[in-house]
UniProtKB/TrEMBL annotation:
Gene3D superfamilies: Transcriptional coactivator/pterin dehydratase. The keyword Lyase applies. It is an enzyme of class 4 (lyase). PANTHER family: PTERIN-4-ALPHA-CARBINOLAMINE DEHYDRATASE. The keyword Protein transport does not apply. GO terms for molecular function: 4-alpha-hydroxytetrahydrobiopterin dehydratase activity. Belongs to the pterin-4-alpha-carbinolamine dehydratase family. Its EC number is 4.2.1.96. Keywords: Lyase. It catalyses: (4aS,6R)-4a-hydroxy-L-erythro-5,6,7,8-tetrahydrobiopterin = (6R)-L-erythro-6,7-dihydrobiopterin + H2O. InterPro entries: PCD_sf (IPR036428), Pterin_deHydtase (IPR001533). This is 4a-hydroxytetrahydrobiopterin dehydratase.
Length: 103
């Protein structure tokens, strides 16, 4: 298992500057909403996110589905805040979403 180290404030600010559309919430979360053309597209996206989270990252986002809008929230409980793993997951989720951009 990867050792998780909580990022400094400066590291978080820098990473957020590179994480398109992600924002900080309550100091300990990064959050992004994704809009889809159809409900089932969002559900398919959630299934892909769940597979990556479980099988590849062993890191799981909070997921909210509101019709065509999917909201993801990430933090690292074991580290007590945001870590490299949160930003790696965010990047991976964005890459999955790119496949839906042309729908």
């Amino acid at each position: 298992m990867m050792k998780l180290t909580k990022l400094t404030e400066e590291e978080i600010v820098s990473r957020l500057g590179q994480a398109d559309g992600w924002s900080r919430e309550d100091g300990k979360w990064i959050v992004k909403s994704y809009r889809f053309p159809a409900y089932m597209d969002g559900i398919q996206f959630v299934q892909e996110i769940a597979r990556i989270s479980e099988q590849e990252l062993n890191h799981h986002p909070f997921i909210a589905v509101d019709y065509k809008l999917v909201r993801l929230r990430l933090t690292s409980w074991r580290a007590g805040g945001l870590t490299d793993l949160d930003f790696e997951a965010a990047s991976r989720y964005d890459a999955v979403f790119e496949r839906y951009a042309d729908l």
